[in-house]
Amino acid sequence: MNLYVMKKIYVLFFFVLSSVVISVGQVRPRVFINPGHGGHDSNDRPSFFYNIGAGDTLRYYESDTNLAKGLALRDILEQRGYEVRISRTGNTSADDLDLFEISALANHSGADLFFSIHSNATGVVRRVNYTLALYRGWNGQPCVEGSDSIAASMIRSLDRNRITTWTHPKMKAGDWSFFRGWGYKTGLGVLRYNKLPGMLVEGEFHDYFPEKCRLMNADYCWLEGWNQSLSIDEYFGRTAKRGVGAIAGRLLDLTAESVYPGEILFGLDSFRPLNATAVTLETPDGHVVASTVTDNRDNGVYVFKNVPAGRYRVCVRDTVRDVILLPATTAYCNFSFD
Length: 338
Ligand SMILES: [Zn+2]
Hints:
The chain is an alpha/beta fold. The chain has 8 helices and 19 strands.
């Protein structure tokens, strides 16, 4: 074989190899999702939900809502061509892996991003509601490069939620700075052995009662998974590829007080959400695209998923609102009736 042919073969081989590498890198980013806690035990921060005195025993577990968000995020990312690993798909004691084991699984998964999903609680009588993302390291100095930028993108996306009532600005921090009292370079257990760019996000405070009511709505958890996916797309530079968004909101009755007047309530949460109320999504000329009904858990939440970008009307009772939905966004459309 002469030198010219060898050169041609070498160039062709290099070209094919580099295009495979580029296409793999572009098409299938890998994400490791860790829905926090598991097993419905005391570590899941359980709390009675409705009035136990009245015989209602429904309990809230953070592990359930973390899992609902995580499974929604997994399905959304897989539909967009991501390769996804998840640390649990159930909520038994066997699913409640040791934190070191989770780190080992993530580090060996070949993932490009580690993402631990949680919600927060004050643990005391005080009530607040805001989004917090923590990465390993000092403030502004993450142990793994990129962790602070994905944290910034994540809290931006979650803080845009206009269904909830936020009491404080969104926040991101290095866990060594945030938990300074725990000791020098101690930080969160699940991040301690992590070697991937990544972070843990506390999406909201589940011990703020109206927020707990919202988290009991499966679509509200889906919406959080969706909003998380938007920031993950932003991190991987993939935002432009999709033509769908989500339309979401909450329905309130301004003539009635909250069903939980003894609770600490902020903003419009002092009014009563509308249960079992129909919401329809229509084109501007009145063609019904989708319809849904709010649940009976005192949150008034509705969500239309995977809606093609465009102009719509959202109709509740006799009220009609125009909505413009851009691709890869969530359009919020709340209704208050008096
Ligand atoms: Zn947690």
